[in-house]
Amino acid sequence: MDIISSLFDGNFMPHGHCLKWQADLLFLHVVGDTLTVIAYFLIPIALIQLVRKRDDLAFNWIFVMFAAFIFLCGVTHLMALINIWHGYYFLSGLSKLATGIVSIMTTVMIVYLLPKVIAIPSNKDFKVKNEQLLLVQKELLAANQLLEQRVEARTKELEKLARTDALTGVLNRGGLINNLTDEIDRSVRYKHPLSLLMIDLDHFKHVNDQFGHQRGDTVLIEAVNIVSKASRHSDTLGRYGGEEFLLLLPETNVTEAKILAERIRQDIEQHPFCQDEGLNISLTCSIGVTEYEAGQTQSKLLQTVDRLLYSAKNSGRNRVTVNDDIAAKDP
């Protein structure tokens, strides 16, 4: 009880005696300590509120210690303010002791946390990292665009391969059918003529049997070149079967198609095949010619030109047939 009484014994000489009770000195000390006390009591409230609202902060205890340290600093200034009139120096000493202890503890915590705090990237580091990320993002975007272009090119290449005959390089049967569908639609829409040539190499099996399949492949490639050379850029040539080829002739009536078919027949008949391999293989072809008629289905159109081709073959081959009764050439 004597200790407690001593703590609250205000009979010591007041601090105001040292200030000589001068109004100007009293004003400066009183106002200065009062403002400091208010600030030191408000700052801890703000720090505690920060810790409560931001429980995700990694170093929230250091904020609490700072709050305690600043609060005790405020208590020491409060005691200095009180001691102007009442000499509670024991209480003032205790507040300073507590402030010193908390200050040392806060310093120890800061020293302990200093490596972790230093390791936190600065704004400059964040800026550099952000620039690096932006650069990587641009590189990824460019790589993605390049990949998309390659995928698109590869897709087109695969689509082309799916529609192209691997040996001759012209359309395969599936590609031909797709193109024929488009040409029929165009013919119907604009009421323009559309003709078809179905070309078959006569006795092609004898070429394979006598000269081998490799020479047979060469013959097929050369035959395609002959037909392509005689055709227009707007015409579509494709391999319909083994040695059968279909030629689509937009903007062409049956009379014009018949003239072209005869020219192709003559070019094939006069061409010496496999000359580059030291051979001179002679070959002929049979050709069926028809023109699309309004209302005719694609299936019916193909059946018609196929029937005309076989009519040419059954009539002796090496001829162009426009209908079952007329051959453009009788060799």
Enter the CATH topology name of the largest domain: Alpha-Beta Plaits
Radius of gyration, in Å, reads 51 Å
Q: How much is the average pLDDT?
A: 87
Principal-axis shape equals rod-shaped
Report the order of strands and helices. Answer: HHHHHHEHHEEHEHE
Total separate domains? 3
CATH architecture of the largest domain: 2-Layer Sandwich
* Tally of helical segments: 10
How many beta-strand elements? Answer: 5
Percent strand equals 5-15%
Structural class: alpha+beta
Spatial gap, N to C terminus: 144 Å
CATH class of the largest domain: Alpha Beta
Order of strands across the main sheet? 2-3-1-4-5
Descriptive account of the structure:
The protein has helices at 2-7, 23-53, 60-82, 89-119, 123-163, 173-190, 204-211, 213-230, 254-270, 298-314, and strands at residues 194-201, 236-239, 244-250, 285-291, 320-321. The chain contains ten helices and five strands. By secondary structure, the protein is an alpha+beta fold. The protein has three domains: 2-119, no CATH class; 125-163; 173-321, Reverse transcriptase/Diguanylate cyclase domain (Alpha-Beta Plaits), CATH 3.30.70.270. Helix 2 (23-53) packs antiparallel against helix 3 (60-82), helix 3 (60-82) packs antiparallel against helix 4 (89-119) and helix 8 (213-230) packs across helix 9 (254-270). Strands 2-3-1-4-5 form a five-stranded mixed beta sheet, with helices on both faces. 26% of the residues are buried. Strand 4 (285-291), helix 10 (298-314) and strand 5 form a beta-alpha-beta unit. The chain is rod-shaped, with a radius of gyration of 51 Å.
